[in-house]
Structures are given as C-alpha cells and as structure tokens.
Amino acid sequence: MKKIASLFLVLILAFGTLLTGCQSSSNQTKSTDKSSDSKKLKIGFLYVGPVGDGGWTYSHDAGRKYLEKELGVTTIYKESVKEDTAEVQKVIEDMINQGVNVVIGTSFGFMDGMEKAAKKHPDVKFMHCSGYKTAENMSTYFGRMYEARYLSGIVAGMKTKTNKIGFVAAYEIPEVIGGIDSFALGVQSVNPNAVVKVAWTHTWYDPAKEKEAAKALLDQGADVITQHQDTAGPQQAAEERGAFSIGYNTDMRDKAPKAYMTAPVWNWGPYYVKQIKAIQDGTWKSESYFGEMKDGIFDLAELTANAPEGAKEAVEKAKADILSGKNKVFQGEIKDQTGAVKVPAGQVMTDKEILNIDWLVQGVEGQIKK
Description:
By secondary structure, the chain is an alpha/beta fold. The protein is built from 11 helices and 16 strands.
C-alpha cells in the first residue's frame, strides 16, 4: 500500500513539474511577444550639439518631447556626439544595449556610422536627417528649407541700406550651399543690387567663433546678418553693432531682440509622430523624405517689428506662390558666380541636383573649398 501511495505521489509530482514547465514556457513566450510588440518602442536620438544651443539641436529635442507627449513612447538622447564614424557606432551600440529599437540621428556627419550600425542591426529602425544613404531599415529625412530661406532673403533684401548682407555659414556641404543660394535668390527678387557675403566657420556649435565671423562681415559693410549655424552668436554680433539679423532653426527673437527680424524654423515633432506611428502600425518603410513647406515641417517665423515696411505683404505673396507651385525657387534662369548659366530659363533643378548642389549663385561673394 505504501508502494502504491509512493508511486501515486511520484506521479503527482511529475505531473506538477510538467505543468510548471508548461507555465514557464508560456510566460517566456508571452514575455518575448511583449518585447517584440511594435508598440513597445524605445527611441534613441543622437544630437550633434547640446540641447541648450537654442538652434538645430534644440529644435530636434523639441520634436522628441512632442513625440513623447503625443504617443507616450520612451525616448533617450545623447548630445554633442562627434561626427566620427566610430564614435557614432559606439553611441548607437550603447543605446541598443539599453533597449533602443529605433535610432534617430540628426546630423549629416552621422551618416556612415549609422549605415554601418543599420547593417549590423537589421531588426532596429534607423532614421537619418539630411543624409543620402538608405537601407531596408534606414530612412533619410529632411525638408526643402530653401523655400523658407528664399522668403527670409526677401526680408533681408528689403531691409539692407548698404546692399551688403552677411551670411555666417558652417560647412561647404550641399545643405548649407543650397541655403545660401536660395537666400540670395530671395534677396535678388526684391533687390538685384544687393550682394551676399559669406564667411565659413567650419563649426556647427561655436558661439564665440560664429560671433567673430559675423563681426568680420559687419566690418565689410554688411548691415544685415544671417546664418547657417546652431547658435545665436551671429545675431548678437549684429545687435551689438546696431545692425539687423535673421536667425535659423528656431525663433531666436529673445537672443537679440533689437536685431532679430525673422528666421526659417524647423518643426520636427509631427514628422517624428508620423514615423513612429507607422512603425507601431507595421506600415513603416524606408524612404528618402524631402518635405515641403506645406507639410508643416518648416516655415518662416513671424516677422518682428524690426522687419522693413512692406516685408510682411511681400513674404505672404511669395509664400503663396511657393505653396501653389508657381515659384519653385530653383527655377531658371540662374547663373553661378562666374556668370555661367547653371539653370536655363524655363527649367527647374531636380531634387537630386538640389541635394548635391556645389556652386554659388551670381551675387554671392565667397568661395567653396573643395
């Protein structure tokens, strides 16, 4: 009888163990399913500057915060990441080890590092701002900021009294060159006698150096300063000299209130929400997004009282023409600095040509080091 009871007890224990094993397996599967659930996302942002730069990085971080608020997703970020392939890869690996499954890189110089990381981690989604390399799990995104640059050029062209406008520029890459050209075309549309003088800093974030570059342009007679930089240094230099300024990336009126007139500004939040929703819905696909002003990804900030009389009306008319497609900005005839026709009358530059532009339009003073 004891033997039968013992055998029965063994059978019960064995059956209990089997049940326990099944439950463990079930829980493990459930946990795995949760971790692979597309709605359980953790997004990592790589920034080229500090979030407090008030410009480029600040605008992306505002987009990150908007994303968190709208979708309730978890995000992390790393600021002041060097534009070095090995460094970018290291930061991405650290993020992935923290559970990140979507990586967003916000500077052109992150491109090669992100491409390598994307190949190594096919299960992670990558989005790169302003680059041109894509993969099945890596998109690129940017906006036709040249449209807003053109509008800001109208303001500058109407404001200048010396017909000399200074442009503090970062690097000789298409993104910056195209911005200079479109700005100059906007200037020339209202003031064909004005010239745009360029000073290169080879920095994205160096307030002191960028301010000094603006001072040099002011010394050459410029009475309006604009920029493709991440700080308000150039505008502060303008204010100190009694000149006027046009910012970039964000509305910087509080940084130089006596000089600031307007700025082409970014609005990344809605784009980030749209992309993350697509990942959650399983509809996301790699693409090369080149947004237009009508998409809401960028715009020209409201003009201040420092802007010239009649500028608001001129900007509104030009903006309406851009939104309707009547004004393509880069439409011929356009000549380069040597006087050679680069875009014949009646023709419009293609997106590929704009994204690879390496020449300055007639009326711009400054050289591109290649």
